[in-house]
Write a structure and sequence with these properties.
about 120 residues; alpha+beta; four-stranded antiparallel β-sheet; 4 helices
Length: about 120
């Protein structure tokens, strides 16, 4: 049986979950039980702002594995996040952010708490 894990840095298409909103300082403010995206919500979120929603909102959706450019048998997006953001994570961070997908998260499954510490800094677009 193949486990179905969730990508925490997905496109915001129909069926995705709103994971968080980019907040002050470029960190994601998580919405632990975000709504599922449908066309009406996507249109409402887009509002009058230009550019992709993924530049200001993080979405989660089922991991597509081989269909993703970051897949090589495991997710390399989290490796890139460590390269880009490990230095940004305060050294005194002991608690993990609240997260609505941790139980099914691809990054959590691969790395546990180390992934959660950099996750708030990741921007999808």
């Amino acid at each position: 049986m193949t486990e179905k894990l969730t990508c925490p840095s997905s496109a915001g298409g129909p069926g995705a979950t709103l994971l968080g909103i980019l907040g002050p300082g470029g960190r994601v403010i998580f919405t632990p039980h975000g709504p599922r995206v449908d066309e009406a919500l996507r249109a409402e979120l887009a509002g009058s702002e230009a550019g992709p929603l993924e530049a200001r909102i993080r979405f989660a959706a089922p991991c597509v594995q081989r269909s993703c450019v970051f897949w090589d048998g495991s997710c390399r997006a989290i490796d890139a996040a460590h390269e880009d953001f490990d230095a940004a994570v305060p050294s005194d961070v002991d608690s993990l952010p609240q997260c609505g997908i941790r139980e099914s998260c691809r990054w959590w499954a691969q790395e546990g708490a180390a992934a959660c510490r950099v996750c708030p800094y990741v921007r999808t677009a």
